[in-house]
Hints:
Elements: H1 2-28, E1 31-36, H2 44-55, E2 66-71, H3 76-85, E3 90-94, H4 95-103, E4 117-133, E5 148-150, H5 157-168, E6 177-179, H6 183-191, E7 197-202, H7 207-215, E8 218-220, H8 226-234, E9 239-243, E10 254-266, H9 271-281, H10 284-293, H11 315-324
Parallel strand pairs: 1-2, 1-3, 5-6, 5-7
Antiparallel strand pairs: 3-10, 4-7, 4-8, 4-10, 9-10
Helix pairs in contact: 2-10, 9-11
Amino acid sequence: MKNNVARRWVLGATAVLGLTFAGVAAAQAPTFFRIGTGGTAGTYFPIGGLLANAISGSEGKGVPGLVATAVASNGSVANINAVQGGASESGFTQSDVAFWAYTGTGLYEGKGKVEDLRLIATLYPETIHLVARKGANIKSVADLKGKRVSLDEPGSGTLVDARLVLSAFGLTEKDVHAEYLKPGPAGDRLRDGALDAYFFVGGYPTGAISELATSSGIELVPISGPQVDKLLSTYKFFAKDTVPTGVYQGVGETPTISVNAQWVTSAKQPADLVYNITKTVWNETSRKLLDAGHAKGKLITLQNATSGLGIPLHPGAEKFYREAGVLK
């Protein structure tokens, strides 16, 4: 009898200990949160690294138990596809691409709507750069006819916008010698004289263009005029923009246009998780990281986080913005 009682006690204690250890393990299991960015030579990747660092729960900061990582990718379209397919928890995209995806229009015409796409935050303006080789005699978009021009990779938001800009000036890809390269390789070919110009959409200054301007010199081609005014009236996600003098060595003030960089996720992500992530992005520690980490980080502000939305906010993000008073 005593042996049976003892045996039952040992079995019970073992079960309780097993449950206890399982509970501890479960409590300590990290939550992984990937941020799809862009090519390593662009602006998305370093900004993604700053935000991942800000929200990761380590050294007494961030969201407890959260392990966030910035993942290099082909950009906006690839990131939305990854979020939609569950291959990534979040990603950066241009506001135009997000709008098209959510509404099933434009680039996503005939491909169905990405109805679960939700916004965490609008980040900063993304400037359309048209970078030309010195001596290529490209003074306007119209001068690209017959030139060797990289439009960026398939799946990137830059390619979408490059096509729209060309179209505004009566050009198509057939009117140029089109190549489809990431900004890094495009810059290398420009430096070597194998390319005349390339499009890049991202916050200025971007490291790859800065290095190119310093090492071999560049020209920024204005994207302006009545053709652009018409473009802006048709596509409301575009806005007029200017690259100030001296942002890139030897380059004067250049009028151009921009879209917004946005951080998106899926409606399937838990509201509490996205609420805590959003709240952490706008705390004092994160503010210091963003201000010190990248020139574009200073433009990522709570006041702009809900501007130019285009798609619905994630409920977790919306809850925080209402508490913070930036949404009524």
